[in-house]
Amino acid sequence: MADINGFLKIKRKEAGNRPLNERIRDHSEVEQVLNSEDRMLQASRCMDCGIPFCHWSCPVDNLIPEWNELLYKGDWKGAYSRLSSTNNFPEFTGRICPASCEHACVLNINQEPVTIRENEVAIVEKAFSEGYIKPAPPKSSTGKKVAVIGSGPSGMAAADLLNKAGHLVTLFEKNNEAGGLLRYGIPDFKLSKAIIDRRLDLMMKEGLIIKTGVNIGKDISGKEILEQFDAICIAIGSTHPRDLNADGRDLTGIHFAMDFLSLQNRVNSGQINSLENTINAEGKKVVVIGGGDTGSDCVGTSIRQRAEKVTQIEILPKPPLTRADNNPWPYWGKILKTSTSHEEGCERYWNLSTVKFTGADKKVTGVEVEEVEWKISDGRYNMSVVPGTKKIIEADLVLLAMGFVHPAWDGLLTELELEPDQRKNIRVNTSQLTSCQKVFAAGDSIMGASLVVNAIASGRRVAKEIDRFLRES
Q: Is the predicted pLDDT of residue 442 greater than 80, yes or no?
């Protein structure tokens, strides 16, 4: 136990964020860093509960009470050892995970949970700065060759563990740089791409082969991959965005959120110059359709591009400020989330359905919306339109941030004749094996768009199954 009375003596203290007027002028990370002494005190608040609901809630089964205790005692190296035993990339999750562990923390009963996410990233950053993290290539090789297709969080996690197990692993990425969603989807102000490069460099020093700019199924056929490797892991994500079938959808100025976010990240990394950014919010009235994290990322990016005005709309009701009676602790709290991007200047509306897009000269000029209400009938939520509530929100740029529906089936998945499930994700069995011999799948491609931490957990599971498959065969 960290400190039996720690939670009574120490109040929750967060690192906080950079000043608003400063951070909106660049794309550097928003979150600040707490000094080591205060961070150790925050770890002392962990009570090592008889039933660690934080651990129960964590998709990667982090040993949270254990590394909090070690952190409190000043054993940063030991804390990292515990942390890395369950999570390949705590520097990612410590920055962008929504922290279901904190929702489940016993102290969250009084809405003052342990700063678990911040403690996590503090541990891994200390480990890097103090040199605790060093390349550790496998001591022996099995001689088995594995191809991991897709270098997002699930592909990286699978490749990392398989390489550590002694297999000869090649990680393929169709884009110019590895990282997948981490690099091209998440804004730099939430996750600096130098953090990704640091981890990839470590993995390559440990023997992992990374090939970028290679589209498997196009540059290299599925048949060739099957012939060249003993096992294949498909981790291509869920990249087919949910569209909005409404009149005026073909007007210029309406784009998918990921296209918008990806272009800005490419500008930041120098892959393209700012003049090549064809989706720019500067001086425009921006409407973001979709109230989730991707929509929030569009808000923050639009503000940094000097948008004139940013509006975010959501078809679902506005969440409550505190848990509803049917949403008790320790489950995920379905409460209103206000991100740092929202704090930077954004009008938010709920219960709005998009009717159509208006335009002039083939360019979008507005979004016609109407209010809806939700009622429970026969145990299900049903939506109905509120008559006489139509209005138009002015817009020069509309960003569709309504999530993703399934992986792209053209190319590799079709060539391999993989079987889809009812939601058009890749169907796998309990070992994450697809309908094609020696082809496994992981991450969003099998479960739909989800959290980075869920993708890492899936990548870890499939790595264990592939390792077992190779050793048994």
A: yes
Determine what percent of the chain falls in helix, strand and coil, rounding each to the nearest 5. Answer: 35, 20, 45
Mean pLDDT throughout 197-217? 98
> How far is the C-alpha of 324 from the C-alpha of 334, rounded, in Å?
8
Per DSSP, the chain holds a count of helices (H) and strands (E) of 19, 16
Please give the structure tokens belonging to residue 382. Answer: 């049903």
CA nearest to 133, candidates 205, 188, 62, 68: 205
- The single-letter DSSP state of residue 419 is P
- pLDDT tens track for 208-262: 999 999 999 999 999 999 999 999 999 999 999 999 999 999 999 999 999 999 9
How would you label 298-327 residue by residue, b for 16+ Cβ within 10 Å and e otherwise? bbbbbbbbebebbbbbbbeeebeeebeeee
User: What are the domain boundaries of the chain?
Assistant: 6-129, 145-239+405-472, 243-402
Element (H, E) at 473: none
Is the CATH number of domain 243-402 3.50.50.60?
A: yes
Q: Does the pLDDT of residue 2 top 70, yes or no?
A: no
Note the Cα 451 to chain centre separation in Å.
5
Structure-token pair, residue 316 = 């679902």
For residues 413 and 407, the answer to whether their CB atoms sit within 8 Å is yes
Pairing of strands 391-394, 363-377: antiparallel
CATH class of 145-239+405-472: alpha beta
Indicate the burial class of 172 (C-beta count within 10 angstroms; 0-12, 13-18, 19 or more): buried
- Mind listing the pLDDT tens digit for each residue in 361-403? 999 999 999 999 999 888 888 999 999 999 999 999 999 999 9
For the domain bounded by 6-129, which CATH number is listed? 1.10.1060.10
Tokens of 98: 């929504």
pLDDT-based confidence at residue 96 (cuts at 50, 70, 90):
very high
| Cα separation, 163 vs 463, whole angstroms | 9
In angstroms, the CA 320 to CA 333 distance is 10
Structure tokens at 3: 């400190």
Question: Does residue 93 carry a pLDDT above 80?
Answer: yes
Fold agreement (145-239+405-472, 243-402): yes
User: Residue 378's pLDDT is what?
Assistant: 84
d(CA 395, CA 311): 9
Q: Residue 369 forms beta bridges with which residues?
A: 354, 391
